[in-house]
Specification:
Elements lengths: L3 H16 L3 H17 E10 L2 E9 H7 L2 H4 L4 E3 L5 H8 L3 E3 L16 H6 L6 E7 L5 E11 L5 E2 L3 H45 L4 H17 L4 H10 L12 H4 L7 H8 L1 H9 L5 H12 L20 H16 L10 H9 L8 H9 L1 H10 L3
Length: 384
């Protein structure tokens, strides 16, 4: 069946798969290792969504040589969980299926082979192994489909006992890990959506729109990317930045919505929104909430130490606070407000350049202006 080296490789793959927490990494690893360890030409994974299977990823070493990047050229589609298609049949009946030649499926079988990819890429699918990816309770999470097993002489042969064993092993581990990943993803998406809705709610009192919140988050995400943050840190920054002005829910409307300049006393009250925002998230345990507290407190601090509430200076200001300071001022200047008209981009750049090394971190401001086209495209996309 498997020699010692193959066993070691398979076990190592299982350990690595079990450590992954992101769906894309899991799917990518399963298709790559299926092709490599089993020795077939291609692999495809579908994930169950309700009563359909959603195509997620497909790789094929032969087609890829012809066109390059095959997996990036296949658009997402769904297949009903029914007896009509091979993948749907396997998901419906929760049992593996081996077909020696998909162009010679007996007429009494309910499923049929879809030739669209073969015709599109001038390819010939012959042998196929399709099996369910199950969780620990034997519920179908998705379907793994392998095509064209090769022998030592590079001839296409029918999938055998060895290939079935390896495929079952990989799909079993992937199914269990994916269930946890999908569940955690749903929880995280609901959690992040709640944060976004809370941020939007706070903006309504400030006579601003949800578009402002969205733009700040997108500007900040671009900053995170340019600064080389990892994916998790970018996501945290994207959502936490939306909470920068959450403390304004504690500011009286007579000040928050005043169309003219604030008095000295009114300004002092307004500045308290940074502390109020911090206190809302103080003691939170999640990374996004912790970062929300930091951004709420520090996004009005200035590089030269003249900001509020604590007069922090230079790199004593957390980088996320410095990022949102630039994003927030840019958006305020380029947008119409009750106290000012919208300024054009050239004027905004001129105003902000005057604050380089004063209000803003000079290196971050340079990075911001170097990528101003990306920033402006975000503004145009989410314009009020």
């Amino acid at each position: 069946m498997l020699n010692n080296e193959e066993w070691k490789e398979l076990i190592n793959t299982g350990i690595i798969l079990s450590s992954y927490t992101e769906m894309d990494l899991i799917l990518d690893r399963v298709v790559d290792d299926s092709i490599r360890i089993i020795g077939c030409e291609g692999a495809t994974i579908y994930i169950k969504k309700g009563n359909h299977l959603e195509f997620m990823i497909s790789k094929n070493i032969i087609i890829d040589k012809k066109i390059g990047g095959f997996e990036n050229n296949v658009k997402k589609f769904t297949v009903p969980i029914s007896n009509e298609s091979i993948a749907g049949y396997v998901a419906l009946n929760n049992e593996p299926l081996i077909i020696s030649d998909v162009y010679d499926i007996p007429s009494n079988k309910p499923y049929k082979f879809l030739k669209v990819f073969d015709e599109m890429y001038q390819y010939r699918t012959k042998s196929m192994l399709t099996l369910p990816m199950n969780d620990n309770d034997n519920n179908v999470i998705g379907v793994l489909q392998l095509i064209n097993l090769k022998d030592k002489n590079n001839n296409i042969i029918e999938f055998d006992e060895r290939s079935m064993f390896v495929a079952r092993y990989l799909s079993s581990i992937a199914g269990s890990v994916l269930k946890t990943t999908i569940y955690n993803s749903l929880l995280r998406n609901s959690y992040l959506e709640a944060i976004e809705r809370l941020a939007i709610a706070s903006e309504f009192r400030d006579l601003e729109t949800s578009a402002h919140v969205k733009r700040i988050s997108e500007y900040s995400a671009v900053f995170g990317e340019l600064l080389g943050f990892d994916r998790e840190r970018i996501i945290n920054l994207k959502y936490a930045s939306q909470m920068h002005d959450i403390g304004k829910i504690g500011i009286p409307d007579r000040i928050l919505q005043k169309p003219g300049p604030l008095t000295v006393d009114e300004r002092k009250i307004m500045e308290k929104h940074t502390i109020i925002g911090y206190k809302i998230f103080e003691g939170a345990t999640s990374d996004v909430m912790k970062l929300s507290a930091i951004i709420a407190l520090t996004h009005h601090e200035k590089w030269d130490g003249t900001g509020y509430p604590n007069g922090l200076k230079g790199k004593d200001i957390p980088i996320e606070g410095r990022v949102v300071a630039i994003a927030d001022v840019f958006d305020a200047l380029v947008s119409k407000r009750v106290y000012k008209p919208a300024f054009d981009i050239s004027k905004v750049i001129s105003i902000m350049k005057e604050e380089k090394g004063k209000h803003f971190d000079p290196e971050l401001l340079n990075l911001f202006f170097k990528n101003i086209n990306r920033v402006v495209s975000i503004y145009d996309k989410y314009r009020e």
